[in-house]
Design goal:
Strand content of chain B: under 5%
CATH superfamily of the largest domain in chain A: P-loop containing nucleotide triphosphate hydrolases
Strand order of the largest sheet of chain B: 1-4
CATH class of the largest domain in chain A: Alpha Beta
Order of helices and strands of chain A: HEEEHEEHEHHHHEHEHEEHH
Largest sheet of chain A: 6 strands, mixed
Structural class of chain A: alpha/beta
CATH topology of chain B: ABC transporter involved in vitamin B12 uptake, BtuC
CATH architecture of the largest domain in chain A: 3-Layer(aba) Sandwich
Number of domains of chain A: 2
Number of helices of chain B: 14
Strand order of the largest sheet of chain A: 6-7-8-3-9-10
CATH class of chain B: Mainly Alpha
Shape of chain A: globular
Helix content of chain A: 40-55%
Number of strands of chain A: 10
Number of domains of chain B: 1
Largest interface: A-B, 40 and 28 residues
Helix content of chain B: over 70%
Largest sheet of chain B: 2 strands, antiparallel
Distance between the termini of chain A: 41 Å
Radius of gyration of chain B: 21 Å
CATH topology of the largest domain in chain A: Rossmann fold
Number of strands of chain B: 4
Number of helices of chain A: 11
Oligomer: heterodimer
Amino acid sequence: MGGEANSRAHRIGEVILALKGVSLAFGGVKALSDVSFDVREHEIRAIIGPNGAGKSSMLNVINGVYHPQQGTIRYLEREYHDMDPHEVAVSGISRTFQNLALFKGMSVLDNIMSGRNLKMHSNIVMQALRMGPALREEIEHREVVEGIIDFLEIQAYRKTQVGRLSYGLQKRVDLARALAMEPRVLLLDEPMSGMNMEEKQDMCRFILDANDHFGTTIVLIEHDMSVVMDISDRVVVLDYGKKIGDGTPDEVRANQAVVDAYLGVSH
Amino acid sequence: MFYRENGQFKSTYESDQQMLPILQDRVFMLVLLVFAFGAVPFLVSDYLFLSLLIPFLILTIAAIGLNLLVGYCGQISLGHAAFMAVGAYAAYNLVLRVPQLNFLVVLLISGLIAAVVGLVFGIPSLRIKGLYLAVATLAAQFFMDWLFARVKWFTNYAHSGSVQTPPVELFGWTVNTPAEKYLFLLGLLIVFTLVAKNLVRSRIGREWMAMRDMDVAAEVIGIRPVYAKLTAFAVSSFYVGVAGALWGFVHLGSWEPLAFNLTLSLNLLFMIIIGGMGSLLGSYFGAAFIVMLPILLNQLPAMLGVPISTSMATHLELMIFGVLIVFFLIVEPHGLARLWAIGKEKLRLWPFPH
């Protein structure tokens, strides 16, 4: 284990994404107040915290779905006040969703293919006639998508409509769609919620493999502490929209504020 | 027993992605096409052509157009007859003012004009959805009804406001008899179906369906809602515009300003609800159903020896539509096309239970 951890530590690079003083409020409700943290390239960074701590809001800010009132986001040497979802996708950030946001009426294959849309460039007339570049593109990207299907072991379901799959498999398709974008940074919003032990182990393996093989930087929200402590390099702890801890799993475990947030404090 | 795909292995992605991957389906389609082109023109009476097959073929093009927007992209429209009117009047004016144009070019330009108009009326979809969008598109219907009734230039200052069209001419071929009209429309419908099929199984179709199923997730993977929604409006209006031009030139021959009113818009919507949202085959079923039902209601009671009055038949028609729409919305939102798909699934297993 020690050797592996060392080689992983070796790979971790410079800061790729940094949030500084981000505050987000919905009317009077403060979802995030003055949160700062950074993500290094190739690392697995976990965000944890009790329910309603602002974890998903955090991802939505990075994604450009929510626009923070204050603070800046620094990504790949550029400073943003807020992000635009399309621009974020183009610049290589993809994500999965907490409550499954798959395209339910489409097949598994089409769902994953839709993750390739930014890499396809043929015009609408060519697509209508399915000639030349459009046809070539469909086949080229199908090959890439088949690679991802193999990687996530969902070959048997490629033509099945997504709405008919079990929850655990849908989570996998969600991950597949995000991976199809070949992201530099992958945001995972509770990828293991509602799974049994075997499914969790599989999902952990996929996440670690994606991180190893493709070098994808991973930002992960998760409630299962054993998973978080096992696979993440560094952990951010949020509570009531504020950052109360940041560091390696061991540091966070020893942090009194974190323990209080999770177990409650007696006054 | 005969409908099996055993032993039909796909060794390339191209063959796996073809339109009809199962051999039996391809054979069936071929037989159907040969029958439609080779046998139907000799077997069917003029009455059936004019009252059944010609309206069916044109309305199927319109239903496919509306289905691309509502069934595939998830944007509702209550004003699609307005875009049919745009196509019809555009074609009328083109033929009138530029008589040397080939009719196919006229169709293409009319469709493009309808596409531009549809795109403009699709802009509200960027901010509103569902019921509110339905009301906004209703505006298209009323605006176009008003425009073509009031602005005399479009009807070439005809006194009654109704317009007459010359027979369609193509490369020296005058499309005149019912059978000729049928063949011409059948050819067009096949082309339009193929194009629609290609669109919905390409990137653009996936973007439309992604917008329909989960718009936030679609945006996050880089699909631009502006592009996806507006192309859906444009392509859909193009189809409907061409259908409108054909409806005017080939089916009606002459029409009044209110030929493309709200009733037609609603009928188009009924077609795709009954036939199946998000299914091209469903557009065929829906159009066939809507065209056939009034004729059946007129003829069937007489054949059974229970004569009913014409007004009774009209009322029955409305009641049956109403009941069926409620039925399909509750029991089978994917319409007749889903029933067909279930039948095919069953046939694959028949006669063995597993």
